[in-house]
Design brief:
single chain, alpha/beta, Quinone Oxidoreductase, Chain A, domain 1, Rossmann fold, 2 domains, 7-stranded mixed sheet, 5-stranded parallel sheet, about 25% helix, globular, binds NADP nicotinamide-adenine-dinucleotide phosphate
Length: about 300
Amino acid sequence: MKAMICTKYGSPDVLMLKEVSIPTPKDNEVLVKVHASTVTAGDIRVRTFNSPVLLWIPMRIVLGFTKPRNPILGVELAGEIVSIGKKVKRFKKGDQIFALTGMKLGAHAEYTCISENGLMTIKPVNVSYEEAASVLYGATTALYFLRKGNIQEGKKVLIYGASGTVGTFAVQLAKQFGAEVTGVSSTANLEMVQALGADQVIDYTKEDFINRGNTYDIIFDAVGKKSKSNCKQALASNGSYVTVDGQGIAKVLMNDINYLADLLERRKIHSVIDRYYSIEELAEAHRYVEEGHKKGNVVIKVTHDESRC
Ligand SMILES: NC(=O)c1ccc[n+]([C@@H]2O[C@H](COP(=O)([O-])OP(=O)(O)OC[C@H]3O[C@@H](n4cnc5c(N)ncnc54)[C@H](OP(=O)(O)O)[C@@H]3O)[C@@H](O)[C@H]2O)c1
């Protein structure tokens, strides 16, 4: 099968398309024919080994010392199960699924193996592979931090960086909780953020939300650009400040995946897709995502040479 291999930590040039063997699922695993994946900020962090100094050694232990231990990156995917291990009960051959592989990576290939107990569920039939592939990384992160901020109906929530992967889901999910949402983005993305459900929008290129005199019950920095001290004067008393940067890694449970799959099926949330690339164009996709200005998600389409299987 073809797979994009990260040969060492470095620039997008370290990504090489190679022929490797199709993996064999263990007893508790399924083999997934991948139809779509994404390039996320997580992939960029792994490839560049962009780690805070204090986490340098633990991260090298987790990811691999000189290069990623799993050289096939890609933290989320959608595809079809083509074979199952002999102990697998939850899934069967032919199931269309979407999954978050997270730190296990492995999505940038024609096939990958996933534990049946992994963060994987059936893809709603009314949602494309491309859209389903681009939901879980952003939406699970947004859900985790909104809950950490104690999101509740009627609360005033400000989402800073409302136009990125995490931000676009944070706006939609905060509305699902019944919050009053203010989204902060640049001029070009204001309309999109409003269309996602934000009650108010603020253009960060024109004004700093801090200076408006408004206060919020939750300020969620979904892009890691505003410190707590930066936001203090806009926080209500007993308000919460949460950020994707420096408050640990979002914990994800299977219940969260099921909750998001249900919202997706009922079209209560959707994925904003900025660009599509083929797997052969993965380095190009990395370059674009690394610029830090994508709107929502960048999807990788994976095609298969059927004559080889
Ligand atoms: N802790 C965790 O568990 C966890 C999990 C997932 C992600 N993360 C982290 O979360 C961060 C965001 O990830 P992401 O994938 O959502 O990022 P992303 O999609 O790459 O963010 C890009 C978006 O951010 C906006 N942006 C850039 N600079 C901005 C600024 N100064 N003010 C406001 N908006 C700005 C851009 O809009 P403009 O073009 O309009 O500027 C663009 O739409 C990353 O650092 C990632 O590593 C953490």
